[in-house]
C-alpha cells in the first residue's frame, strides 16, 4: 500500500442528500511498505545468510503504476448521491462516480461479513436495483452511510484509501516486495541467497520461514545450508512452507536416472533451461531439489536462469518480440507415460502478463514439452523469430548461472520465474524434492511477510 501524502475531507450540505468524493494522488510513486526486514549486506538476521542487495542489477517497484486514494469529500449530487474517485492516471483532480452498489457490496459490518470466516454473508444480487445513499455523515475516521433499503454501513477512511477501486493490489497478489532481477555477474559479486536449516526448522518461531520465503520471492531462488542428508528431513523442510503437490509422478520424489517415469529428468542427459509443469493449467509455484548422493561419476552441474531478467532485456531491446511472446498462445503436453496425456485447458503465451498493469507474472518455457503451435502458418515465422531471440538470451553466459548441487544444501526456486536445467552426468545420482502450488506458496509468503491483519485489510474483508 502506498503511503499517503495527505488525507483531507470536505463536507458540502444540500437538499438532496450527500456523497463522498475520493481523489487519487500519485505522490510518492514507487514507495514500498516495510512490513518485513529487507535483506542486508552479509548480515545475519535470524540466521539468514543474505546476499548483498546494495548494488542491485535491476529492481522493480511493485507499485510503479499505482496511485492512492488520499482525499475524501462529502458532496450533494442531486437525488442520487455517490462516491467519486479520480483516475489513477492523468489529472488527479478529475472525478468519476463509483457505483453505490460497490460500496454496499463491500460493507464490512458483522451482518455482511462473517467475522470468523471472513466471507460475505449476504446475497449481493438480491439488493434493490435502485440502491442509493439516504444519508451520509462524517465521523472522526470515516463515514456513516444510511442506505435507501434501511441498512447502515461504516467506511473507514484508511479502508477507502486502500480500496484501489480500479487497481489490482500488490499485496493481494503477493508480489515481491524488493525484487532483484539478476544475471551471472550479479551473483558472482554478491553470492546466491541462502538461509540456515536450523532457523527454518525452529519449532518456536516462524521467523526463519519468513526470511526464507521472502528471499525466494525477491530473488526467485534460495539455498538452505546445513540440512540433513535425508529424504524424510527434506520433506519436512519443504512442508514448512506448505503441502507438497501431488502430480502424475506422485508427491515427494526420491529418484535416480532410471527412467522410472518417462521424462528426460529421469535420464542422465543434459537439460537446457526450462520451467516445469508447462503442461499443467496451473504450473507448480515452487520446486525443491536436494542432491543426496553422486557416486562413480561426475557432471550434473545445476543451471539456473532468471526468466524475468532475460524477459526484461528482450522487452528493452526488441519490444515487438516481447509482445509476440506475451500474446501468441502455445500448447504444451506430457504424454510419455502410458495412459496419460496432460495439457492445459487452453494454450498460454510464453509471457503471462497482469491484465491491468501488464507486469510480467509468469514465464512458461519448455522446448521439450512444447506441442505444435496453434497459430496460422503465416504468423508462425514471427513467433519462431521472437522465441529464437529469447532462447539466445537464455543460453548466453550473461544469464546462465551454474553451480554444483551438494548434499546438505537443498535448492528451492520459483518455477514461474526461474528456469532450471543441468549438464550431463555419469555415475549414480540420487535426488529428492517436490513441488508446492503457487497459491499455497504466495499465501504463506503474504501471511508471514505482511501479517494476517494487513493481508485481510487489503482484501477488504475487515480484520
TrEMBL record:
<dbReference type="GO" id="GO:0005739">
    <property type="term" value="C:mitochondrion"/>
</dbReference>
<dbReference type="InterPro" id="IPR038492">
    <property type="entry name" value="GBBH-like_N_sf"/>
</dbReference>
<dbReference type="GO" id="GO:0005506">
    <property type="term" value="F:iron ion binding"/>
</dbReference>
<keyword id="KW-0479">Metal-binding</keyword>
<keyword id="KW-0560">Oxidoreductase</keyword>
<comment type="function">
    <text>Converts trimethyllysine (TML) into hydroxytrimethyllysine (HTML).</text>
</comment>
<comment type="pathway">
    <text>Amine and polyamine biosynthesis; carnitine biosynthesis.</text>
</comment>
<dbReference type="InterPro" id="IPR042098">
    <property type="entry name" value="TauD-like_sf"/>
</dbReference>
<dbReference type="GO" id="GO:0050353">
    <property type="term" value="F:trimethyllysine dioxygenase activity"/>
</dbReference>
<feature type="domain" description="TauD/TfdA-like">
    <location>
        <begin position="191"/>
        <end position="434"/>
    </location>
</feature>
<protein>
    <recommendedName>
        <fullName>Trimethyllysine dioxygenase</fullName>
        <ecNumber>1.14.11.8</ecNumber>
    </recommendedName>
</protein>
<feature type="domain" description="Gamma-butyrobetaine hydroxylase-like N-terminal">
    <location>
        <begin position="97"/>
        <end position="160"/>
    </location>
</feature>
<dbReference type="InterPro" id="IPR050411">
    <property type="entry name" value="AlphaKG_dependent_hydroxylases"/>
</dbReference>
<dbReference type="Pfam" id="PF06155">
    <property type="entry name" value="GBBH-like_N"/>
</dbReference>
<dbReference type="GO" id="GO:0045329">
    <property type="term" value="P:carnitine biosynthetic process"/>
</dbReference>
<dbReference type="InterPro" id="IPR003819">
    <property type="entry name" value="TauD/TfdA-like"/>
</dbReference>
<dbReference type="Pfam" id="PF02668">
    <property type="entry name" value="TauD"/>
</dbReference>
<dbReference type="InterPro" id="IPR010376">
    <property type="entry name" value="GBBH-like_N"/>
</dbReference>
<comment type="similarity">
    <text>Belongs to the gamma-BBH/TMLD family.</text>
</comment>
<dbReference type="InterPro" id="IPR012776">
    <property type="entry name" value="Trimethyllysine_dOase"/>
</dbReference>
<keyword id="KW-0223">Dioxygenase</keyword>
<keyword id="KW-0408">Iron</keyword>
<keyword id="KW-0124">Carnitine biosynthesis</keyword>
Amino acid at each position: 500500500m502506498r503511503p499517503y501524502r495527505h488525507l483531507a475531507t470536505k463536507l458540502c450540505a444540500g437538499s438532496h442528500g450527500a456523497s463522498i468524493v475520493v481523489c487519487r494522488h500519485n505522490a510518492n510513486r514507487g514507495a514500498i511498505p516495510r512490513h518485513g526486514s529487507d535483506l542486508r549486506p552479509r548480515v545475519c538476521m535470524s540466521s539468514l545468510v543474505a546476499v548483498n542487495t546494495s548494488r542491485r542489477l535491476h529492481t522493480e517497484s511493485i507499485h510503479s503504476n499505482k496511485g492512492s486514494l488520499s482525499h475524501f469529500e462529502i458532496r450533494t449530487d442531486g437525488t442520487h448521491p455517490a462516491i467519486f474517485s479520480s483516475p489513477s492516471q492523468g489529472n488527479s483532480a478529475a472525478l468519476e462516480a463509483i457505483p453505490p452498489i460497490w460500496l454496499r457490496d463491500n460493507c464490512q459490518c458483522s451482518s455482511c461479513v462473517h467475522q470468523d470466516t471472513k466471507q460475505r454473508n449476504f446475497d449481493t444480487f438480491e439488493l434493490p436495483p435502485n440502491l442509493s445513499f439516504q444519508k451520509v455523515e462524517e465521523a472522526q475516521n470515516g463515514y456513516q452511510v444510511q442506505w435507501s433499503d434501511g441498512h447502515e454501513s461504516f467506511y473507514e477512511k484508511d479502508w477507502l484509501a486502500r480500496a484501489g477501486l480500479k487497481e489490482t493490489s500488490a499485496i493481494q497478489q503477493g508480489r515481491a516486495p524488493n525484487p532483484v532481477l539478476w544475471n551471472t555477474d550479479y551473483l558472482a559479486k554478491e553470492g546466491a541467497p541462502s538461509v540456515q536449516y536450523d532457523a527454518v526448522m525452529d519449532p518456536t518461531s516462524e521467523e526463519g520461514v519468513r526470511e526464507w520465503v521472502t528471499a525466494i520471492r525477491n530473488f526467485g531462488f534460495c539455498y538452505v545450508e546445513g540440512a540433513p542428508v535425508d529424504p524424510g528431513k527434506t520433506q519436512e523442510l519443504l512442508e514448512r512452507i506448505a503441502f507438497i503437490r501431488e502430480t502424475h509422478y506422485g508427491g515427494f520424489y526420491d529418484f535416480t536416472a532410471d527412467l522410472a517415469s518417462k521424462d528426460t529428468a529421469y535420464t542422465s542427459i543434459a537439460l537446457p533451461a526450462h520451467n516445469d509443469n508447462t503442461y499443467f493449467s496451473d504450473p507448480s509455484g515452487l520446486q525443491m531439489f536436494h542432491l543426496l548422493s553422486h557416486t562413480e561419476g561426475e557432471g550434473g552441474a545445476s543451471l539456473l536462469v532468471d526468466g524475468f531478467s532475460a524477459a526484461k532485456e528482450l522487452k528493452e531491446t526488441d519490444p515487438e518480440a516481447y509482445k509476440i511472446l506475451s500474446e501468441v498462445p502455445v500448447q504444451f503436453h506430457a504424454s510419455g507415460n502410458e495412459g496419460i496425456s496432460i495439457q492445459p485447458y487452453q494454450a498460454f503465451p510464453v509471457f503471462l502478463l497482469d491484465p491491468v498493469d501488464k507486469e510480467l507474472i509468469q514465464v512458461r518455457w519448455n522446448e521439450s514439452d512444447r506441442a505444435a503451435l496453434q497459430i496460422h502458418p503465416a504468423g508462425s515465422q514471427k513467433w519462431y523469430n521472437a522465441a529464437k531471440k529469447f532462447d539466445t538470451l537464455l543460453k548466453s553466459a550473461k544469464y546462465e548461472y551454474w553451480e554444483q548441487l551438494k548434499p546438505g544444501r537443498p535448492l528451492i526456486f520459483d518455477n514461474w520465474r526461474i528456469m532450471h536445467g543441468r549438464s550431463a552426468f555419469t555415475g549414480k545420482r540420487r535426488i529428492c524434492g517436490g513441488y508446492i502450488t503457487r497459491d499455497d506458496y504466495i499465501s504463506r509468503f503474504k501471511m508471514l511477510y505482511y501479517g494476517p491483519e494487513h493481508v485481510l485489510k487489503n482484501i477488504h474483508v475487515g480484520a
